[in-house]
C-alpha cells in the first residue's frame, strides 16, 4: 500500500521533518500512521519536546551572567 | 567596571560554546580570541550592557562560521563521503520488521522542566557526547541556526549525507535524554 509506513519509516520521517520539508505523500502517510499507531505519537512527542528544549537552550545562553553561573 | 573587563570576563563562557561547536581546542581558542578582539575594537557598537552576552555570542557565531569554513576539510573528514559508512543507526530502535523493539517512553508534559538550569546542562552534556563530526553539523543547525543548504555549502557536503548525520544526531540525543532525564522521571521504580 502506497500510504502504509512501518514505525521505523514513520520515526525516520518524524526526525527528517526537523530538517526538511516532507513530500505530500510522506506527510499524508505519516499523519495516517500516527493516527493508527500507539507508539509513534510518543516518539513524535519526544522529538517535539527536543525541539522546544533546543529553543530554550539557545535562548538561555543570551541571558545575563548572574543567571548562569 | 570598564567595558574591557566586562568583555574579558565572558571569555570562559564563550569558550564553552566555541568548544561545543568546533570540537577542537585550538579552533575554539582562535574563535574566542577573534571575538574578544572584534568586540574590543568597537565597544561603541555595543550600547546596552545588559545585553553584553547577546552581543558577544552574536559575534562568536560569525567567527565560528569563519573557522569552520577555514577548516572545512578537517571538520569533515573524507570518511564521511559515503553515508553508509557504519551500521544502521536505528538498529537498536527497530526490529527488522520495522516495529519498535521497545516502544518510546512517555516524556510527559515537561514544559516547566525545560526551563531549569539542571535540564539544560543535561541537554548540553548529551550534545557534547555526540561524535565530533555529527556534533558539528548538528550544532551548525541548532546553535548557528544555518539552513541545510548553507551547511552543505560551507562543508561541501551532499544533502543526503547531511540528513543522515542529522538523523543520527537527533536519534542519539533522544536516547541520551531518555536515559539521563526523562526516563528516570517517568519510569516508576520497581
Major beta-sheet overview of chain B = none
How many domains would you count in the coordinates of chain A? 1
Proportion of residues in extended strands of chain B: under 5%
Low-confidence stretches of chain B: none
| Structural class estimated from helices and strands of chain A | mainly alpha
The total tally of domains of chain B equals 2
Low-pLDDT sequence parts of chain A? 65-69
N-to-C terminal Cα separation of chain A, in Å? 55 Å
Largest beta-sheet characterization of chain A: none
Protein chains sharing the most extensive interface: A-B, 34 and 46 residues
- Provide a count of the helices of chain B: 9
The tally of strands of chain A reads 0
- Note the total helix count of chain A: 3
Multimer state: heterodimer
Mean pLDDT of chain B: 87
Structural class of chain B: mainly alpha
Order of helices and strands of chain B: HHHHHHHHH
How would you characterize this protein structure?
The complex is a heterodimer of chains A (69) and B (190). Helices cover 64% and strands 0% of the residues of chain A. By secondary structure, chain A is mainly alpha-helical. Chain A has one domain. In chain A, 32% of the residues are buried. Chain B has 190 residues and is mainly alpha-helical. Chain B has two domains: 3-70, Rna Polymerase Sigma Factor, Chain: A; 76-186, no CATH class. Chain B is 62% helix and 0% strand. Chain B is built from nine helices and no strands. The longest helix of chain B has 28 residues, at 159-186. The N and C termini of chain B lie far apart (55 Å). The mean pLDDT of chain B is 87.
Question: Which helices and strands appear, and what pairs or packs with what?
Answer:
The complex is a heterodimer of chains A (69) and B (190).
Chain A lengths: L6 H10 L7 H13 L3 H21 L9
Chain B lengths: L2 H6 L2 H12 L2 H17 L10 H19 L1 H4 L41 H12 L3 H11 L5 H8 L3 H28 L4
Helix pairs in contact in B: 2-3, 2-4, 3-4, 6-9, 7-9
